[in-house]
Amino acid sequence: MIRLEQVSVSFQAPGGAPVRAVHEVSLEVARGETLCLLGASGCGKTTTLRLVNRLRSPSAGRVLVDGADVAAADPIALRRSMGYVIQAGGLFPHLTVRENVGLLCELEGWDAARTRARVDELLELVSLAPREFAERYPSELSGGQRQRVGVARALALDPPILLLDEPFGALDPITRRELQHEFTQLTRRIEKTILLVSHDLTEAFRLADRVALMDAGQIVQLGTRAELESAPATPYVTRFLEGFVDA
Amino acid sequence: MRSQLALLASVALLCGAARSAAPPMPQDATEGTFVIGSKTFTESRLLGEIVAQLVTARTDLAVEHRSGLGGTLICWEALLAGEIDLYPEYTGTAWAVVLQEPGAVSDPLRAFLRVQSESRRRFDAEWLAPFGFQNSYALALREDHAEALGVATISELARVSADLRAGFSVEYLNREDGWPGLRDAYGLAFTSVRGLEHALAYEALGAGELDVIDAYTTDAKLRRFGLRTLRDDRGFYPPYHAAPVLRGETLRERPELRPLFAELAYAIDEEAMIAMNHAVEVQDRGFEEVAREFLVEAELLSAAEIADAAPTRDARQVDWLRLLGEHLYLTFVAVLLAALIAIPLGVWITRHAAAERLALGLFSAVQTVPSLALLAFLIAVPGLGLSPRSAILALTLYAVLPILRNTFTGLSTVAPEVLDAAKGLGLTERQVLMRIQLPLAARTILAGVRTATVISIGVATLAAFIGAGGLGEPIVTGLYLNDVRLILSGAIPAALLALVADKGLALVERRLTPRGLR
């Protein structure tokens, strides 16, 4: 379970004026729930996501995972308890698919056979035949295949939480659609608490149980699709839902 | 002397990559050994050899002759640092280069006494009585031409200069104690004055393309080409008397050396010096043989005493394998050390922006220090001296920058999303470095090592200047002996070595690059 309490992030811009990237954001992602941080670029959604695995630290407020403040946690153990997927996969170009997916297992001291079996299992899970893909390098994969490897890598240690930052943002519409579909199938099977960042309304509603629409570092409205559509909190929500906000 | 700069320029060209050098094996100055230094050119080496044989035969001292030290600064620093006990020097050179005083005293005795007292007072270096000849700048004409014109002095030349064509070495053209000063002092006005490489000037004069050139008074080529040097009747040129310079400490410990060197005082006149230079450069005779012959003829040594003298290695003999081995050793150790310094430093400065500017700036600055100056500085450092250590350290200092720069570039150009993913997945800082950043930067770092290696192979020819060996030895010896075969026997292997190293390391680079990055 992820819980943000009145979290703010501000920093000093090179020019001098303090910038408020995130302002008093509170939210909760229940166990097994998928929540999407939705908004136009620069709204603070990625910064909010990165607070959870301590790639960023809040200037004010608390971030709790399973009731414990992450500020007190060991960042390495914390991050290994959460899968992390970013746009275009962020695969390590000098490692094969097998090495990419199995890296964390190896660092955790798993023996080779166990790592190997786990990688095969994960590749099957993301619909990549191990015999065909395991020994390839990222440069030898299509964009969609890379993204699948990125997801498999994030699942390596079977973490209870997944953080996904625009996971399908760099794909063509057809591949994206396909992966979104597979992803919903997958999440039904693996039962994860998922925090997702997207700028795409369709994607947010398709993948997430609830959506937090953000603007200028604040949450404008948090709720299910039905709640947002039936009772938009502000005119901005209406405009966003109608597609008038250039995401 | 003056030809040092010209020499450096030629060698730099020959070696392609960098600067260069000449002769014999290293090892530290042993306690109790009387070490004689000499510069790279024939005359200095001959004087060193004469002194070496004399001291060997007439004292119980163990003598070592380190010939081919690269120029005045190296010799002088080596003397002050106690790396050598003696070397032959010229008063005019010491005045300009060592004492660094403006102007000059034209009276030879006053000049000598002034240099002597200043060296003693400021550096505890002792000038003993001159050998007896000067090696100065002069103007030279073909003997038959000079005869026809009826000129024996520069004043006489000035009267007919309007009909003559002059060709001077570039340095002489621009030195205040060279052409500009001479022109004003004598009112010379040639039809044309051109700058050209000194070695070529003799040929041009012989071919009748030129009428007047600048020359060194003891140059063997004067005789070879049948030239007449004109008397400097107004005393324009500063005196360039050759004399042995010793460490004051050595003389105090070995007072018996004074009377011995007194026997050498004024023992070599200009004619004798020219004849000896001629014997080596034109007749291809060995340094040792020519020096011994002089000592016997001057009755400084008897045939019996000569028998005791240790044989010296012939400078023309090229022990190719030894030189290659030394060269490889110098280069390998230097590049290895440079990598051991540069790669960790490169990692560190990637995380500290201020240190980055400082380190890159510092090693860029080192790169601009001329090699000879760097060597002169290093041999004065206790513990380094005239050993291969100085050469290796100099090479290392030059090799750091390409590796450092490439390490920094390689690490800082790793894609940010890759680093973000690595960190976000829970790799420790060390794991990010070792598993992600360094492997991704490996190709760039290796390219830096390759550059450093190729540069070092070129610069290592310079090690010969401090007697640290390597393929530079035959190059400089060859330049002074006018022996193209000798020059090429050093330059070609050095060039081939650089090529092989470049290709070989390129191959290693490819092999070490994972398929995913090719």
How would you describe this structure in keywords?
heterodimer; A: 247 residues; alpha/beta; six-stranded mixed beta sheet; four-stranded antiparallel beta sheet; 10 helices; B: 518 residues; 10 strands; elongated; disordered N terminus
Can you offer a commentary on this structure?
The complex is a heterodimer of chains A (247) and B (518). Helix content of chain A is 38%, strand content 26%. Chain A has 247 residues and is an alpha/beta fold. Chain A has a six-stranded mixed sheet, with helices on both faces. Chain A has a four-stranded antiparallel sheet with strand order 2-1-4-5, with helices on one face. In chain A, helix 3 (97-107) packs parallel to helix 6. With 518 residues, chain B is α/β, with parallel strands linked by helices. Helix content of chain B is 60%, strand content 10%. Chain B is built from 24 helices and ten strands. Chain B has helices at 3-15, 42-58, 71-80, 91-98, 108-123, 143-149, 154-160, 170-174, 179-186, 198-206, 220-224, 248-253, 257-264, 270-281, 287-297, 303-308, 320-351, 353-368, 371-379, 388-412, 416-424, 429-459, 472-481, 484-512; strands at 33-39, 62-69, 86-90, 125-127, 137-142, 165-168, 192-195, 212-216, 227-229, 242-247. In chain B, the strands form three sheets. In chain B, strands 7-6-8-5-9 form a five-stranded mixed sheet. In chain B, strand 1 (33-39), helix 2 (42-58) and strand 2 form a beta-alpha-beta unit. In chain B, helix 20 packs across helix 22. The termini of chain B are far apart. Mean pLDDT of chain B is 84; it is low at 1-30. The chains are: A alpha/beta (247), B alpha/beta (518). Chain A binds chain B through residues 50, 53, 55, 75-80, 83-84, 86-96, 103-104, 107, 137-140, 150, 153-154, 163, and chain B through 415, 417-418, 420-428, 431, 435-436, 439-440, 514-517.
